Amino acid sequence: MKPFHEYLELVNEAIAAIPYPEAPRQLYEPIAYHMALGGKRVRPVLALMACDALGGELPLAMDAAVGIEMFHNFTLLHDDVMDNADVRRGKATVHRRWNDNTAILSGDTMLTIATQYIAKTGSPAVMDLFNKTAIEIYEGQQWDMDYEDRIDVSVDEYIKMIRYKTSVLLGCALKTGALIADDDEREADVFYEAGVNMGLAFQLRDDVLDVWGDPETFGKEIGGDIMNNKKTYLLINAMQLAQGDDADELRHWLNDPFATRDNKVAGVTRLYERLGVRELAEEAIARYNELSVEAFSRLKISDEDKQAFVALSNRLAGRNY
Known about the structure:
- This protein is an all-alpha fold.
- The chain has helices spanning 4-16, 25-35, 42-53, 58-83, 94-97, 100-119, 124-147, 155-181, 185-212, 215-218, 224-227, 233-241, 244-255, 261-275, 277-297, 303-318, and strands spanning 87-88, 91-92.
- Strand 1 (87-88) and strand 2 (91-92) form a beta hairpin.
């Protein structure tokens, strides 16, 4: 296999070459703007890596890779509207630079473009997997919104939600690449298992970075989850562990509509640190990363390629920024 950065270059070239229509400008310009923001492009790279590891032809996997990345970015456009987010990858979100209606309609268009790219693979199995994954992601997003109004969300419910909302797309990317290279469903399922566990560690790391990350490299404002009272792994554990004065303070921050951003983020962060919830998150991240690494070790690919996947899993679980 190639180094990660070489796959990334191929993906970026393909995305830069997407032929958007010139009109209506208000529809396509926001899509081009958002796609040009960059990002880690982990999902399309995973599709190419899996295809390559099984001896498949990369051009056959590139359409799927672009479709998966376009779909992922469609979900981000809509997420930013739902979360009222101002910044994405260090730049103004589409709904802030234009408006909510533009972000919604451009996002809808991105979904259709993504489906067109997946259809180019000519694989019914790949299309079925894509559609199944898309519906699971919508279900995960709905659970995420449902949890905003609940105070009794369990850790197990949260893990199921992030599995659907985030992790299944990493599993889909790897399995898609495997299916394009080889029709061995069992091997493709091992890739899927590895990707889902990788995705769980990835999302839990995102929860941690939202509180303790560097905004310059995180690409989003720190404390967004705290300000939105998002039921993250950190908050759910804090709600279960807080007693006495800590419980009173946590309820105050969750229910005070006049709290300033700086005060609320700082106050909740101090509570998290007192309650030790970051350590609980780090343990969970390590556990899911170990499951991902174990699945990669079972693949019928070269040891060198296995190590490349393991290194990437470790890197995504650590994300030192």
